[in-house]
Amino acid sequence: MKAELLVFPVLALIALFADPSSSIRLPDRTPAFTASDDRRPLKTAVFALGCFWRSEAVFGCLPGVVRTTVGYSGGSALNPTYKRIRDHAEVVQVEYDPKIVQFRQLLDVFWTSHDPTEVFGQGPDVGDRYRSIIFTNGTGETRMAAVSKEKQQAKIRSNIVTTQIQELGMFYAAETEHQKFELKHNPQLFQLLGFMPAEELQRSSLAMKLNSYAAELCPPDVQSRIDAKINNILDKEWPVLKDI
Ligand SMILES: *[C@@H]1O[C@H](CO)[C@@H](O)[C@H](O)[C@H]1NC(C)=O
């Protein structure tokens, strides 16, 4: 993974998206992450940008993003659920390798992936649970978030950016059925993973990436690369996808 940094200086979003070397291997039935992967110092970021099914897919195809989990944050009620989210928002928690992608770049993706001027939801998703929030951990991130919000506001001008910036409090993981939702709702694609227990599915970077592919939220070149890979597998009648 380190080589990626050298080959592709991550300066622009395009470079982030275009990185073809971020393929993820899922060795047979062993967990998606080896012990050495787990020792990598990962960082965590949390964003609210509308329906969390889509939010998860927005971040899942970015090089450097290792794991995504949808959940609830931003409110003060205890133990929110999908049916009783109360004062929380739908969020995605993004675990990333800071050597490959930085908080600043996640912010860029956040801004370009929803309409931060909408007041009570996103498009057809209406309600306070779909509000726009950047969660921060520490003054450094809070400052970066504030600066990026000012830039966004300067760009948009005619409308008010409603995005809130909030120190991250509790994150409650959502129910299993909401994790990798886009992938689960594409049975043909899901089948390509072979049988994967829920817990492994949750930790698998391959499943995370396929979830973005299912939502057509990988960049076009990555979408077509995965298309080709899948067609190739189907041609060979070898029905289990090992990497993309
Ligand atoms: C906040 O950052 C510190 C170190 O910078 C880290 O130890 C801690 O786990 C982070 N908290 C969250 C909720 O990510």
Automatic annotation (TrEMBL):
It catalyses: L-methionyl-[protein] + [thioredoxin]-disulfide + H2O = L-methionyl-(S)-S-oxide-[protein] + [thioredoxin]-dithiol; [thioredoxin]-disulfide + L-methionine + H2O = L-methionine (S)-S-oxide + [thioredoxin]-dithiol. PANTHER family: PEPTIDE METHIONINE SULFOXIDE REDUCTASE (PTHR43774), PEPTIDE METHIONINE SULFOXIDE REDUCTASE MSRA 2 (PTHR43774:SF1). Residues 44-187 form the Peptide methionine sulphoxide reductase MsrA domain. HAMAP family: MsrA. It comes from Acorus calamus. Its EC number is 1.8.4.11. Catalyzes the reduction of methionine sulfoxide (MetSO) to methionine in proteins. Plays a protective role against oxidative stress by restoring activity to proteins that have been inactivated by methionine oxidation. MSRA family specifically reduces the MetSO S-enantiomer. Belongs to the MsrA Met sulfoxide reductase family. This is Peptide methionine sulfoxide reductase A5. InterPro entries: Met_Sox_Rdtase_MsrA_dom, Met_Sox_Rdtase_MsrA_sf. One of its GO terms (molecular function) is peptide-methionine (S)-S-oxide reductase activity. Coiled coil: none annotated. Residues 1-23 form the signal peptide. Keywords: Oxidoreductase, Signal.
